[in-house]
Design brief:
single chain; mainly beta; six-stranded antiparallel beta sheet; 7 helices; 39 strands
Length: 666
């Protein structure tokens, strides 16, 4: 039987051998005795504040080498040394990309100041170390030659040949097994495989164990993990079980899980571990979806997972897969870790949303999880100088239900910025629509000034104030309420914003979306709407007789299942202008034309000039993935009562329109 054929057979040593390592071998490996000198760390003057993105030094003045890592809150019953409450594990990148010394560990009593505890898991420079280095001889001296060769395959990070890539150790995470009293480390173990010299061909998850949180951790094996069930999309059917960016999570009942990118990073898995935390709960060929594993993201290209639990809700933060380049984070939630996951988009709004404050997620620290105190950890990778790549730590804020947010702080503290948080829901009755005034702002006269709030077993009535800053465009818009009598916590709802005195409500693309129907219903309470369908080619309306519609040879519709006024659209082809004509208007009155813009293909970098009746009303309209609307006010129809809207391309990509509304000015 070859090395690694069974989960319990280690590349380096069997699990039983790991657990019984004692005596001379343990002494030679440096196991046992007092924990390293956290309590005796040299005094240092340290400012008790976090400064995200700035250099972070340990208490000896050295740059902290714990990249792609995790801060572990030491649980009750686990021994980590006097005063140690937190352990920070991560990649030692002091040598750059190659030649990693291994997995570094630091200890702290307060999260601000960190003491270097050395390498918890040492990498290898050559296979000779099994006999020449007491550390490796003590750990693996009782292994067979094949087992030692397999250990070196995973831990040999030194590049000794220009033509052969070395092993790679990334994303180390550690958990404590209260039943076995062992510390268990999992690592993304990559490098060449038996059939390829590619740097990321192996795509395995490796595991090691130790009696001490500071090591030495003894390597067990590296594995391919679970695979897509038959009938589901599988992005690597001929290369199953891949495991790359990964994390660990131990639930309240002691069940442990590994979270990892698979299928060339296209899909994300959560797999249950066995009782020892050193292998899967079931071999991949016997694993059952929903029992042993789940795929929260399929084909979504997500990596860098960070999973945590607040109350009865599981949260999963991930990054896109764009190499060293940062991208927007997303988060998903579930009430059953192996059940259905719901994606909520990005946890950041405004500045920083596009690149997660120039960082990539790595972990969330459960400082005081029952009180809602969590810290987001991110890496700000600097490929040209990985050793000095800084860290981004930010407090996690929770809103109503499953809402979660990350906001930037140049400097912050635990006492001032990591407040207690509660899970809560708000019972509020909103009007069918908000009217947009002549200045484009929403009118809030119909919004309630009190709401019901439920938190745990408590229900109360709270005053509420409303922020309508984002309710400044037609369509579904967010309105945010602040609960005056519930700690100024907030909640957000979507409500339909409708301009007054609409005469045309045209949904480009022709879909009868729910928000189009609701907007027409609201508009008819104030007067006649001249179009009876969402869209038509130019001609007479079947019900009103008004002349209206679009013209542009070959123009096509984009219809989306479950779409809205913004996501459904009509686009021109071959560089043509897209025109909408609206007849039957009063030449003696003025009107506002509202145009909706949204680009599901924002990389096209399209732009347009917008004209109404031949007059330029917007010289350069850019198309982005953000829902936006323009309001061209005070427009007079021609003598025949006609307004003509032209969207004219100013760059090579074809242009498009989401909606066109015409409202009569008061």
């Amino acid at each position: 039987m070859g090395v690694g054929d069974r989960p319990e057979q280690a590349y380096g040593v069997s699990r039983r051998a790991v657990l019984r390592l004692t005596g001379a071998a343990a002494v030679a490996a440096g196991i046992g005795g007092a924990f390293p000198g956290s309590a005796d760390a040299a005094d240092a003057v340290v400012t008790k504040a976090f400064t995200p993105g700035q250099p972070w030094l340990d208490d000896a003045g050295n740059v902290i080498q714990a990249h792609g890592g995790q801060v572990f809150a030491v649980p009750k019953g686990a021994k980590a040394g006097k005063g140690v409450r937190y352990l920070w594990y991560g990649e030692d990148r002091s040598n750059g990309y190659y030649d990693s010394p291994g997995v570094h560990v630091y200890s702290s009593s307060d999260l601000y100041t960190w003491h270097d505890e050395g390498l918890a898991l040492k990498a290898m420079e050559s296979a000779d170390q099994f006999t020449t280095d007491p550390y490796f001889a003590g750990l693996y001296g009782d292994c067979t030659a094949d087992q030692q060769a397999a250990v070196y395959r995973d831990l040999g990070t030194r590049q000794v040949s220009a033509t052969v890539n070395p092993a790679i150790l990334e994303r180390p995470k550690v958990i404590y097994n209260a039943r076995t009293r062992k510390w268990v480390m999992w690592v993304h173990a990559d490098g060449p495989s038996g059939t390829s010299n590619a740097q990321y061909a192996k795509a395995r998850a490796g595991v090691a164990v130790s009696d001490s949180p500071y090591g030495p951790f003894r390597w067990i094996d590296s594995y391919r993990l679970d695979v897509a069930p038959a009938g589901e999309d599988n992005y690597q059917p001929d290369n199953p079980g891949m495991a790359r960016d990964m994390n660990l999570f131990v639930d309240d009942d002691g069940t442990a899980y590994i979270i990892y990118s698979s299928e060339e990073n296209y899909s994300l898995f959560i797999s249950k571990l066995d009782a020892d935390y050193t292998y899967l709960s079931a071999p991949p060929d016997q694993a059952v979806k929903g029992v042993d594993f789940i795929r929260p993201y399929i084909g979504a290209h997500r990596e860098a997972p960070a999973l945590f639990r607040f109350g009865d809700v599981y949260y999963l933060i991930t990054s896109g897969a764009t190499g060293w380049t940062p991208n927007p984070a997303q988060y998903a939630t579930a009430t059953d870790i192996l059940g259905e996951w719901t994606d909520h988009g990005g946890p950041i709004s405004g500045d920083g949303a596009a690149d997660t404050f120039t960082s990539q997620s790595t972990c969330v620290i459960p400082v005081e999880p029952k009180r809602g105190r969590f810290i987001f950890m991110g890496d700000r990778w600097t490929p040209s100088d990985l050793a000095d790549s800084p860290y981004i730590w930010l407090p996690v804020s929770f809103g109503e239900g499953t809402a979660m947010e990350l906001t930037w702080h140049d400097s912050w503290t635990l006492d001032a910025d990591l407040a207690d948080q509660k899970q809560y829901t708000v019972d509020v009755q909103l009007p069918a629509q908000l009217w947009l005034g002549a200045d484009g702002a929403a009118e809030q006269a119909d919004l309630p000034n009190r709401v019901r709030v439920a938190s745990g077993h408590r229900t109360l009535t709270s005053r509420v104030t409303w922020n309508l800053d984002e309710a400044d465009r037609p369509g579904m818009v967010p309105v945010t309420g602040t609960l005056v009598d519930f700690g100024d916590r907030t909640f957000t709802r979507q409500v339909l914003a409708v301009p007054h005195n609409l005469r045309y409500v045209v949904n480009a693309g022709g879909d009868t979306t729910g928000d189009w129907t609701s907007m027409v219903t609201a508009a008819r309470t104030e007067g006649t709407v001249l179009n009876s369908t969402p869209e038509q080619p130019f001609g007479s309306d079947a019900e009103t007789g008004a002349q209206w519609g679009w013209t542009s040879a070959g123009a096509l519709a984009r219809k989306v299942s479950g779409g809205d006024l913004y996501t459904t659209l009509r686009y021109a082809v071959s560089g043509r202008t897209l025109t909408y004509t609206f007849g039957g208007l009063d030449p003696a009155r003025t009107y506002t034309v509202h145009a909706g813009w949204y680009d599901p293909w924002p990389w096209a970098n399209r732009a347009a000039r917008v004209e109404v009746n031949g007059t330029v009303v917007e010289a350069q309209r850019l198309f982005t993935s953000t829902r936006e609307a323009s309001a061209y006010r005070g427009l007079s129809p021609d003598t025949d009562g006609v307004l003509r809207l032209d969207v004219i391309p100013t760059r090579s990509p074809d242009i498009q329109l989401s909606f066109a509304l015409v409202s009569e000015d008061e």
